[in-house]
Amino acid sequence: MSSETKQILTTDGIPLEVSLKKAEKKNKIKAFLLVAPLLFFLIITYVFPIGDMLFRSIDDKMVTQMLPKTFKAMETWDGQELPEEEVFAAFHEDFIKLVEDKREGKLSTQLNYTKNGFKSIIKKLRRASKKFEEGNYKEQIMSVHKRWADVEYWRAIQRRAPEFTGQKYLKGMDMYVNEEGKIVSVEEDRRIHRVLWLRTLEIAFFVTVFCFLMAYPIAHLLATLPMKYSNLLMICVLLPFWTSLLVRTASWMILLQQQGIVNDFFVGIGLVADDNRPEMMYNKTGSYVAMTQILLPFMVLPLYSVMKTISPSLMRAGKSLGGTPFVAFWKVYFPLTIPGIGAGCLLVFILAIGYYITPALVGGASGTLISNQIAFHMKSTLDWSFASAMGLMLLSGVLVIYWLYNKIVGIDNIKLG
Amino acid sequence: MALPKYTEPHYRIWHYIYLTICAAVFFFLIAPLFVIFPLSFNAEEFLSFSDGMKRLDPDAFSLRWYKDMIYGTKNPWGLAAKNSFIIAIFATIGSVILGTVAALGLSSRHMPYKGLIMAVLISPMIVPLIISGVAIFFFMAKAGLAATHTGIVLAHIILGTPFVVITVTATLSGFDHSVTRAAASLGSDPVNTFMKITLPLILPGVISGGLFAFVTSFDEVVVVLFLAGLENTTIPIQMWTGLREQLSPTILAVATCLIILSTLILVTAELLRRRSERLRGINR
User: Residue A1 — pLDDT band, cuts 50, 70, 90?
Assistant: First the structure.
């Protein structure tokens, strides 16, 4: 090759290109080693556990492991008519073992998720099974309760055979797999989760809108005032920003309670009667007011940082070219602030959609969000797989917005304070 | 914001409407915080202004809720404060070390997959806290760290590092790398260069990131609710329980102390920010 003769060599006799690449690689490794401790720490303690949530949300081994022989015997059953004696005998064997381990209660809870009515018949079966004679288990089990002779219930048991299930996700959308194996919605008056999802979106959306409407004028004022005044006013934005969330929620609880200052004020100016004070807390109003105030700084700061870079001469130019102040604002100033609006709105929306503490304290029953439902299942019903499923549904929504944010603003451009 | 003399009347009116709107929004932002101060000195057990307070009668004010906060036997505020400070301090140290080192790597122009790695490092700030809480709880339960200080400190390091990474990366973006090269050419090894040259220059960013991490930990309640046992109770947990069960004026006394603390942190953060801007020559 002709290039061979032209190739520049370092003093060691290695081609310069190779040597440079080597140095580059060394630098890459160096940079990566600096990031590595935090990256691996987060992967182990944070990213994997979120993966674990995914696994838990579809994991349905519990029943599979409780009734191994039954499911083996059921493999040949077509599900049309009542299963054969073989299945009943296997079920009896599994059940006796469960009773010995005192785990039949768990089985009944689990089966009840699939079909209502298992709780009582499993209790009855436990009592009756003590007197069972060997052989002909089909007759004996069917005689315990008429539901044991109902093929629907055996089909319900069969549906729990797979080790993995998407039913928690369906439940989160108020849907389930019916007897024919079709995905259908639950009855209209029991669609609690859909109501919660919609309410979460609704509250997050309106809180974002309110924050935007309130933040825009003050961010503009802060950006246009002379430094010494704007620094002072900036404290009004930064002090709430640095103050504990619980403290701010507490102050709203004091203000909004029925004997609180806001109500006193309304009574004082004669807006409402003293004996007819409106309920402003423990409902949606409470969530709206408190969340708007708490998230407002997150809207002001990105708007302010964008507005500060806009030269005031642009507005003057617009006006001098014959635009009225409104036209100049709308055609010149506003379009320049759109990056800030995008950043602020996405940030507030992301934060609002996952809000938990404030709605739990001031939201009451009608102002709680999907996060509160997740916490409820984590702490009260202990249905962790359902909590995981709903958490991941929420997370996927947030990640979409995060991705948008990254596209529009870039995560490197997040500014604090 | 004085208007020029030739301004037409209806723009003048609009301008005053605009100022009024701004004033109302500032009031909405800041006023709720100031309700807590006077009420925490209430001599009575109510959470509204008593008639005596409205008349500014000195007897209507007292320090009883502050005494209750410090000496009250039923109130575990002492333990909670101790735990909160211990956890926050260790979480801050952990976040600052891990976050600063990672930011150094991220700011290098040789860093591969920068966007992806940045997205992972920032994610604890973006993912809703309730989800972080569930995930971290699963991990700590498996690792046997639930209901221990160590577990909570680790959880708060996870939540605090994004702030340190962001602030330090921002500081490093204006950093003149020729000074470190100069140090290296004068025979300094990388560790020495970092301690003597880089660190002093990026210190404002590191400290303000640390302040964020401290406040995040000190104010964090969602994840702690999943992790803490009775022994690990913190101020936010006590406030949360208090606010859910019954709003007592003692909580307002605690809240007042927290507002004072956050004011101090705000002042420190602002001073640091200005110093940093001055050092980087941004300030006009």
Answer: very low
ipTM of the complex: 0.86
Same domain membership, residue A359 and residue A225: yes
Contacting residues of A for B29, CB less than 8 Å apart: 236-237, 240, 293, 296-297
Q: How many CA atoms lie within 13 A of B69 on its CB side?
A: 23
- Across the interface, whether the CB atoms of A416 and B167 are under 8 A apart is answered yes
pLDDT in tens, B153-193: 999 999 999 999 988 988 888 788 888 889 989 988 888 99
Which backbone phi and psi does B100 adopt, to 5 degrees? -65, -45
Report the gap between the CA of B73 and the closest CA in chain A (Å): 23
**Residue A401: inside a domain:** yes
Do B243 and A250 make contact, defined as CB atoms within 8 angstroms? yes
CATH number reported for the structural domain that contains residue A403 in this entry: 1.10.3720.10
Write down the pTM of the prediction. 0.84
Q: Residue B215 and residue A242: Cβ atoms within 8 Å?
A: yes
**How far apart are the C-alpha atoms of A71 and A79, rounded to whole Å?**
12
In sequence order, what are the beta bridge partners of B42?
Answer: B61
Helix or strand holding residue A175 (H, E): strand A175-177
Asked if residue A74 is part of any domain, the answer here is: yes
Q: Which helix (H) or strand (E) holds B221?
A: none
**Residues contacting residue B14 through CB under 8 Å, at least 6 positions apart:** none
> By CB neighbour count within 10 A (0-12 exposed, 13-18 middle, 19+ buried), where does A360 fall?
buried
- The pLDDT tens digits of the residues spanning A291-306 come to 999 999 999 988 998 8
Q: Whole-angstrom Cα distance, residue A219 to residue A242?
A: 18
Distance CA A67, CA B249 (A): 56
Q: Can you name the CATH fold of B85-279?
A: MetI-like fold (1.10.3720)
- Supply the range of the domain harboring residue A28: 17-58
Q: What residues in A contact B258, CB-CB < 8 Å?
A: 243-244, 247
In a domain, A187, yes or no: no
- Per DSSP, helices labelled H in chain B are 9-40, 51-54, 64-71, 77-107, 114-126, 129-143, 149-173, 178-185, 190-193, 199-219, 222-227, 235-245, 249-279
Q: Is residue A403 part of a domain?
A: yes
Report residue A385 as tokens.
């797989």
Residues A238 and B30: their CA atoms lie apart, in Å, by 10
CB A63 within 8 A of CB A174: no
Distance CA A400, CA A404 (A): 6
Query: Degrees (nearest 5) of the Cα angle B213, B218, B219?
Result: 100
